[in-house]
Amino acid sequence: MGDTKDGPPKGKKDSKKSENLRKDLPITAHEQTIEEVAAEFNTSTSRGLTAAQVVESRAKHGENRLTPPKVKPWWMLYIEQYTNFFSLLLIAGGILCFIAYGIDQSDASNLYLGVVLLVVVFISSTFAYFQEAKSQAIMNGFKEMVPKECKVIRDGAANIVNPAELVPGDLVEFQEGDQVPADIRVIDSYNLKVDNASLTGESEACERSAVLIAPSHGHGGGGGGDVEEGGKGRAKVPAIEATNLIFYTTMVANGHGKGIVVGTGDNTVMGQIAGLTGETTGDSDPPIVREVNRFITIISTIAITIGVVFLGVGIGMGVMTVVQALVFAISVIVAVVPEGLLVTLTVALALTAKRMHNKNVLVKNLQSVETLGCTTVIASDKTGTLTQNRMTVQHCWYDNQLFDVPSARNAPELTQMMSDPAKKGMHGWSLFDPNNGSFKMLQRIATLCNNSDFIVQDKFDPGAPLLDLEKEALKSDFNLLNLATTGDASESGLIKAVQLLEDVKKYRARYPKLFEIKFNSTNKYQIGIHDQTVDGDNRPLLVMKGAPERVWAAASKILINGQEVPKTPEWEAKFNTAYEGLGALGERVLGFAYRHLDGLPHNHPWTDQPAANFPVSELVFCGLFSLIDPPRLGVPEAVETCKKASIKVFMVTGDHPITAKAIAQQIGILDDEVLQRGKGRVVTGDDIRVLMDIADEGKRQSAWDDILLKNEQIVFARVTPAHKLLIVENNQRLKRVVAVTGDGVNDAPALKKGDIGISMGIAGKAVSKEAADMILMDDNFASIVNGVEEGRLIFDNLKKSIMYTLTSKVPELSPFLLWVIAGIPLATTTILILAIDLGTDMIPAISFAYETREADIMCRPPRNAHTDHLVNLKLLLFTYLHIGVMQAAAGWYGYFVAMNDYGYTPWVLPGLGHKWDDLPLLCRIGDGQTKECGFGCGTTDYAGIQNAVISAARLNSTSAAAMVSATAGFCGDGCQGLNSYNNASDPFSEFAPGGAGFRGFAAGVGAVCARTCNWYLGLSAQQKSYYLAEAANPNSAERLILTPADVTQFDIFCGSAFNANVSATFGFPGRGQGDSKEEAVAGAVYWWRAAVQAQPNMKYQKNALSQGQTAYFVAVVMNKVIAALISKTRKLSLFQQGVKNNRFMLFGFVFEACLVVLISYVPPLNVVFSTGPLAGLHWLCGIPWFLLCFLYDETRKAAMRRSPGGWVERLTYW
């Protein structure tokens, strides 16, 4: 058929490609005969392809390379990190800061704020970029796996070429140690074994030959048979299990062979895995990221809503200039959004990651730390994770009895294990008897008919002395099981089992080897002939080890209780019962037999070509050894902990179903009780293939649901990488949070797809480590459970940290809202807000990462990542309306006290805020309306005022009554209110002792006017003319700054007649005085003195506000301390939890106290933060609210403990 112009939409094509990647590759070469394969690829089985065919095939199939995935340029990926809503909001705030600074450069705080906001965005975005960039590294890991060279036959000649040059149809030779350069159909082999662990997870190397053999339903030596080659439809044997195929990047572990290339590049099994990994993305962001994004969306919505609403109110009321509107918008963003949240989150996760590293868990992706805490399913690889990744002898059969063989690490441990003769193994079988004659022969054969050796040379220091294994084994801290060996896994397991009984090296030296027939896939046994002269027997000893049915077939007798008895049908039935019983446990079973070769001398010309010139039948069958990759220590307990924590553990392995089931039962993944109820199941790769053949997606998902929802415990066996990915995806479809473990290349797609991928640090391949979020440094499943506990703990503690952080949002936001609504001068600034969010709050917020866990943390179900949120409505209401309101009240109390002490009583502040920084403020007296500013009284009797002032100045008295009497003559219009210091009447009620000085106007009236002699005398003629002209304009905002009447008053009070009669002492009575302006306390400008005041009005105004803002800041930070303490527990009393258990939090309190002192008293910081040195009493304003907050929360928690589930808990338990 020709190509059509139109095709399916791109999305559908991509979907179809993705679905095909999850199915088995359409490989049929293993079903075909060698001649059919050669014909299909038009190649010769002896001469290979011609040069012309190679060129033609390469043009059609391309090079033998994995196609690199499409990746975004690093700069585009980096820019994308700045486009999330949180970053855009802060960027907008930063830009507004720079605009505001550009319009009014007199206020540098906007510049500082803009820089800080952009720095916060830069740090968080850069961190996110490095997380994203790891995908490229994953694909680079595949590149490292490509073979370096291979041997190919073309035109009948052998050549060494780069594997990238191979094409389908090439004839390739390979031998032990080679990396397979493509997917190859084997056409000839000798003792060929291939290590497929990276693809299937199988512990042992797999035999491969030119013959396709059906999978064994037993589990020992054979049991399989040749299958009919050819056939239509799906292969009877999946390609991944085919015994006549070897796959790209796997290793040839033994033997040699030749084959035809049937798949290259992307059309290989490894290419499929790379394709899956490249196109696979996580189901979504990690749960903690989703929670933070959700929270930011809520907070940002609140910020924008408040900003827009009150911006409209401010503009509608005509109280905002353009700059003020920008400042307000910025301030709302800064006040509502917790800028330090991402930094706090990152640091807290990093601290947890450090703690997990001490528990052998290396965290690559910090955000995944919490994911473990809400994990509902752990899809765990078997080999090396649940098991020890080493074949170990478990049982033996001799004298018609099954025995348990304990796995001892050293001689003392073996002695201790064997000390109790009545001790039983896992299945109730007795321990073997090392002194039994039949076992001793079994031990002899296992030692001699074995080519495995211990590696006793230090690979890191070749010059170091060889390990004295016999001596080392006597030490109680020595671990023989971890010692590296040569040879295959089964032989390694055998010598580790017998070494502690007698040193293998010395044993073999006593019985020298005369001849050997190595194990091969045709015979399925190994033979050794040994000299046993040391025992006084000159007959050569033939020993055989291999597949039990082959060894049994070669025997005519059986060794029972040291006696050789004839093999009978009854004995054969007993043998089959033992063999099948051990096979049913998932164990690899080996048979052992021997024969004394009578009549053959030691120097016999031993050979097996073309046939053995010595007898290989009529043997004496000795017994069986069975091996299995045993469970890791601590794994059963870890699985049990997972059950208590309501976490499902699924075993997902490429190993045999019988083996997988046996291990699962040993470690508790499959319970007998669950199996009896029909709620446990072993699902095979074939079962999944049947599911994938269902065309209707709805029915296919329903079939998956039947498996995943109707079974409590599941083991997946003989699965491919694509199957493992499907298992993860379908669990995620059911809203489960899936943790995936793996160590092989085959695991990379699932590791990347899972909510959290966990690779093995020891056995893990580079690709799997790159794809994972965490790496188990000890390859131990039990370490995952430790991680789950840490993940749950960090979620609890993050919730407490956020509760603490959010309590300051109301005190941070309320000053800006009251500035718009009531015109109260700002009680805080955006820079001071950042000083709280990124300064004083930071260490206490991070310190929650050090809080200890709750007792039931691993006994409760995982949190529902879709409904149980980090921040919920109750938490917001509690932080805002309960603790937040009390913190705001503390701040306002401190602010009003400080402002009052500077002459700005609370009732005069409304309305003054909008013009505070622009010009001298107008009077607000009587009914609160703006009045013409005089000197405390509205009288026009200027002469009377002058006389009264001079009369009062001449008094040498501390009597307030005398002062009131001296001024009563002209203040008869009721403007003599009580002042805020000594409750005496204004305007002339405060004075220095001895009549040294007095105040020229009343608190809240003249003080607010704040037009001093210095200001008046400093006006130029042009400025006076301007203000006087404005006074004549009824619509001018500046009409009351200087009226003609004011000029007359200023001329009187600032003239020489007044100054000549007033003392030159500076200062406030009761608040410090001085004989010079330099010694006077801040604010002395408000006192009439003999000399003209030197400090301008606007400076005092600024100083007064800085004191109020500093007092507000101090009171809020003080109450943040109690907020941290009450956040330590959700129900328990603080007295129960204690304070000393978190020393880092105590350090945080010291840190924030030091920071507050620095911000208050260090002059450069005063400039940056608009603060000032705070009077001693003003530091204490927050204490009453501190105590109130503590008593309130303790009462609330006590009510919850007394009435669980009551209305207090329902409304306030966050």
From TrEMBL:
The chain crosses the membrane at residues 82-103, 109-130, 295-319, 325-351, 816-836, 875-896, 1144-1162, 1174-1192. InterPro entries: ATPase_P-typ_cation-transptr_C, ATPase_P-typ_cation-transptr_N, ATPase_P-typ_cyto_dom_N, ATPase_P-typ_P_site, ATPase_P-typ_TM_dom_sf, ATPase_P-typ_transduc_dom_A_sf, ATPase_P-type_domA, Cation_transp_ATPase_P-type. Signal peptide: none annotated. GO terms for cellular component: plasma membrane. It is a multi-pass membrane protein. GO terms for molecular function: ATP binding; ATP hydrolysis activity; P-type sodium:potassium-exchanging transporter activity. Residues 28-102 form the Cation-transporting P-type ATPase N-terminal domain. GO terms for biological process: intracellular potassium ion homeostasis; intracellular sodium ion homeostasis; potassium ion import across plasma membrane; proton transmembrane transport; sodium ion export across plasma membrane. It comes from the Eukaryota. Keywords: ATP-binding, Cell membrane, Membrane, Nucleotide-binding, Translocase, Transmembrane, Transmembrane helix. Residues 1-25 are annotated as: Disordered. It is found in: Cell membrane. This is Cation-transporting P-type ATPase N-terminal domain-containing protein. It comes from Chlamydomonas reinhardtii (Chlamydomonas smithii).
